[in-house]
Write a structure and sequence with these properties.
Elements lengths: L10 E5 L8 E6 L2 E2 L2 E2 L3 E6 L2 E7 L14 H10 L4 E10 L9 E2 L3 E5 L24 H14 L3 E2 L3 E5 L7 H9 L4 E3 L5 H7 L3 E11 L9 H25 L17 H6 L1
Amino acid sequence: MKNKAPHRNEIAIIGGTGLESLLEGIERIRVGTPYGLSPSMSIGEVRRRSVVFLPRHGHEHSTPPHKVNYRANIYAIYTLGVERVIATNAVGAINLDFRPGDLVVPHDLIDFTKQRSLTFYDDAPVTHVDFSEPYCPEVRAAVIEKAKQAVNTVRDLAVYVCTEGPRFETPAEIRMLRALGADVVGMTGVPETVLARELGMCYASLCFVSNMAAGIAQRITSKEVLEVSETVSSMIANVLAEVIRDLPRTRQCSCSSSTKNSRVSEIKKC
């Protein structure tokens, strides 16, 4: 296993281990970062474009969501030259119109995590990154377009709420989250989105509804989540391949300038 990539990589996929099959010519790599060692990642090609695949929970799905080293993960793909990140996430449906198997492309989020390292800016320079549009509009649009070509039901306006896990939520918590405007709930979308923005990377998420949330469903099991994941995995892989093929080579969004006018020390000098 090598400790550096042989060339620049354009796009990263973060998700379940089954998605690794998308890549051709796979090379395994781990990257040391100031935040720890990354998990073993795969580098290869998807539709003739260089792609990094990062298994969020490790190749054996051995790391629970609240213990994922998100900063090491995001920093590692950043050092490999990645500019765009497409994440996949299993979510529970809070919105009563959503159903298991639906694809969801969130446009906004709510953070209910409790103990995660949420930023690269723990020290000076004090930096307040704008998060008015949490997900990259350019990558989101591409994901929505390809998802709608693949399936009939794509929820392209949805608020994702991230909870700490690893337990599922209580019915009372789900009622509260619905009152706050959340549509789906997951355990992995934060701080990935934040960290990617802080490094000027584009980030969008393709979620699939694996279950109805607590209080809507009588009981939630990991078995149910995995069964739905297996059902939609090939479809999600096809959508990702189409997105990667057709994404413009040059970014037209503002994600790369995320820290402009965000550092207090620079503003005070003006």
